[in-house]
Structure formats: C-alpha cells, structure tokens
Amino acid sequence: MGGAVSAGEDNDDLIDNLKEAYYIRSDLVEKAFRAIDRADYYLDEYRDNAYKDLAWRHGNIHLSAPCIYSEVMEALDLHPGLSFLNLGSGTGYLSTMVGLILGPFGVNHGIELHADVIDYAYQKLDSFIKTSDSFDKFEFCEPSFVAGNCLDIPLESRQYDRVYCGAGVQKEHEDYMRNLLKIGGILVMPLEEKLTKITRTGTSTWETKKILSVSFAPLVLPKHGPNGKPKIVPLPRYEVRTLQELARICIRHTLRVTTDEKESQSRGRGSSFSYGPRFKRRRVHRRQCSIQVVDEVVDEEEEQEEEEEKETGELLRPQPAVNLLRERILGLPLPEPLKMYLLFYREK
C-alpha cells in the first residue's frame, strides 16, 4: 500500500510531498514526522528506499507507507497526556512519533507479535534517545513494548484514550477492539479494506468514519496453549515516575521554555519550531513567484555560492544547529554526574 505521493530526496522532502497531497494537515503531526527520520528505521542496505511512499518488509520487520502513517496520526487526534496503545507496534517508528506529542505524562504502550521485532524496536528507540537532536526539542513519552498476540489481551484489562491496530481486523473482532477504548477515545484500524476511525461516544455508543481504502495483512489469530485455553498477554505496566525523574522533567522543561522564549525574542516573532537552513532554501526555490526581483535575488545568491565553491574547491554546507538545551545544561553549576543525568546520558 502506498505510492500516493512522489518519492523524496530526504525526510524533509518526503514530508513536503505528504503536505502537498494533504495527508499531513496539522502542525503537531508535521513536527513529529520531521523530527523522526524514516530512514533510521530501515536496515542500512535498504535506506535508499526510505523516502518512497511505499510499505517495506524484511522478514518480520515492517513499515507501512508514509501516506498511511500520516492519515493514522491525523485521525488519532493526539494531545499531550493521553494514553496510547499500538497493536502491532513493529519497529516503533509510529510509537516514537506519537511519544513526541504525548509528552512525559502520557502513556505509550505497544504489543508486537514477534520478539525479534521488539528487540529491533528497542535498538532504534535507544539510538533515538542517545543520538537524535530531536530528542532535546520535545518532551518525550518513551514507548514500552510487550511480546504477544493483541487478541490475547484479557477483557478486563485497562482502556486507552487512543488505539491503533496495524493489521487488518476481521469483522468478528471489531467489538473486541472497540472495548479497548475509554469513553471519548479514538480507535484507528483497517476494517474491511478501509482505514476506519471509531470514536467511543458513550458506554455502548460509537461513531464510525471510513478514511480511505487500504490493503493490510490480516491479524494473526492466536494459538491456544496445551490445555486448549488462549495465552494471556499482559499489557505493559503503568510506571509511576520517581521524584528524581519528575525533577529532571521539570528542569528540562524550564530550560527549554526559557530557551525558546529567547530564540523567539531574537527573531522578533514567530514560533519556536523552525526548519533547518537547507530546508528553508529548498522552499525558496520551489515557491512559484511572478515577481522578477525575487528570481534575480535567488540567481545572485546562487552565482555567489558558485563563485565561493570554485574558490574553496568544496560545496557550501549549512552550519550544524546548536543544541541550546544541551549547552544550557552543561553550563549549570552542577556536578558532572547530575548534568549527564539531565542529558539522559546522551552522546553529542
């Protein structure tokens, strides 16, 4: 499934195409997609295919097409502090993007059928936390995964504000899925070849909306144990944060907010979220404009860059962005072990 939009040269280009095709419609979803490079969830030998609007599978590892994830993220209507359950969590790509929106006081759980895929997801999650600059730009709700069949969740289990199922749901399992929702919650799943949004409006009332036609592999039916009874899959535990963790969240939030305010003041106005120099330049070139003066300015800039490239013998590259949150933490009058704790022991 996929192929609805053109392939991109990189992650930003892919997001541009998804916006132009109206798959991405909200700022929150756009920010989450830009923050997580889709290629990071591919095996190295397949990274060249990461920015195509196509699903990808290698063994048990699977990623849906970007247009599908876009529609799912929009339909879930995510907000900070919500609880989220991802049925068939796979590589953790979607769960990580969701975690950027839920914030530190949300709940981010996933169930995955294959244990080797959970190992892969945790490797990717660890890499994101330790190496991605995006981690310091958001307040993150770290996902937790458990192995098992999502149809083996006990009926008396807790309910969630948002639920997504990444496999085709048979009609006979629709009620089972709906009962995972709290009142007011939203369930998004492939049902009868349609990506479907179901909102629980009351104890036994629902609203259903068909979003688009899709083709998903069906849910794998559970296998019964030797005694003929189904296996029980416990959901991930709700973890109560320690005072130490709460203090870290509060300190990082305060430093981030004050940093964003200073950045906004230095720019005069505008939001704290901005694209990199390379992305800004692409948008200038792609924008259609009938005013000749603008075209001349762009041409002059290009000519100047070409001259500088000839003189230096190398391509001009934008300077890497400074991680201001990291700089502020390192500048605090605190012992080094405490600074590293505030940094989540992240590498530079």
Automatic annotation (TrEMBL):
The lineage of its organism: Eukaryota, Metazoa, Chordata, Craniata, Vertebrata. It comes from the Eukaryota. The keyword ATP-binding does not apply. It is found in: Cytoplasm. GO terms for cellular component: cytoplasm. Its main location: cytoplasm. Keywords: Cytoplasm. This is Protein-L-isoaspartate (D-aspartate) O-methyltransferase domain containing 2. One of its GO terms (molecular function) is protein-L-isoaspartate (D-aspartate) O-methyltransferase activity. It comes from Cynoglossus semilaevis (Tongue sole). Belongs to the methyltransferase superfamily. L-isoaspartyl/D-aspartyl protein methyltransferase family. It holds the Pfam family PCMT.
